[in-house]
Write a structure and sequence with these properties.
single chain, seven-stranded antiparallel β-sheet, six-stranded antiparallel β-sheet, Jelly Rolls, mainly beta, 237 residues, globular, 21 strands
């Protein structure tokens, strides 16, 4: 088992006033030669967006982009006709494919918005751009994994153009949960949204992250009530 630890205080960061991002991987003006990507996971940004804050219309291509609101709500609009409001409990995915132009904004003029934005390299290039969103009941992730993004039909999740899966759990203090890969040989990038856990003798706290590869399953013990995001990802093209 190979483990790479990223502590919350070691992340890149910026302050644009309305936008305060934290970067797990090199992005925008933040560059770290050892933090370019984890397998085919290219971007994981932990963003704070003030009321009224907005990313104006801009293009993307050949990237799978997943947005996970933690508090507040996001307004999405793109040039394919995709438009929606996504809130905590909702997940949004956009396949940029052959090319798409979209804007993202805080749906509130006054309340702050916090979210994870994730970019993953696609399995097939230049597909027709697509947008989707879905609400997932938070009760269904109590002490179990709730798969929210997956190409597998049996996972009943938002479809992604990659052999990747996103899973969330709310783990009660003292409980242990196993993560088992949906795809043999994938790695898992695990983020502690809140709380603290122990994995293979390592303690992780709020917003710490762990990249795990060269194993198809591992155990996680919650030392406090904890929220976790697991991003399972191919390690090679």
């Amino acid at each position: 088992m190979n483990i790479q630890i990223q502590r919350a205080h070691e992340r890149g960061s910026a302050d644009y006033g309305w936008l305060k991002p934290n970067y797990y991987f090199s992005f925008s003006n933040y560059y770290h030669p050892q933090k370019i990507h984890f397998g085919l996971l290219r971007v994981l940004n932990d963003d704070f967006i003030a009321g009224g804050g907005a990313f104006p219309a801009h293009p993307h291509d050949n990237m799978e982009i997943v947005t996970i609101p933690l508090t507040g709500a996001v307004h999405h609009k793109d040039n394919t006709g995709g438009e929606g409001i996504i809130q905590a409990g909702d997940i949004q995915i956009m396949s940029a494919g052959s090319g798409i132009v979209h804007s993202e904004s805080n749906a509130s003029a006054t309340e702050p918005l916090t979210l994870f934005q994730v970019w993953i390299f696609p399995k097939q290039k230049n597909i027709t751009p697509r947008y989707d969103q879905r609400h997932f009941d938070i009760k269904d992730r109590l002490n179990q994994w709730q798969i929210v993004v997956s190409p597998k039909e049996e996972d009943n999740a938002l479809w992604i153009n990659q052999d990747a899966r996103f899973a969330l759990t709310n783990l009660s203090a003292g409980n242990t949960i196993e993560y088992k890969n949906g795809f043999d040989g994938n790695g898992v990038f695990l983020v502690v949204i809140s709380g603290s856990v122990e994995i293979d003798g390592t303690t992780l706290n709020k917003r710490d992250a762990l990249g795990i590869s060269e194993t198809n399953q591992f155990a996680i013990k919650a030392t406090t009530d904890t929220e976790l995001l697991a991003i399972e990802i191919p390690m090679t093209v």
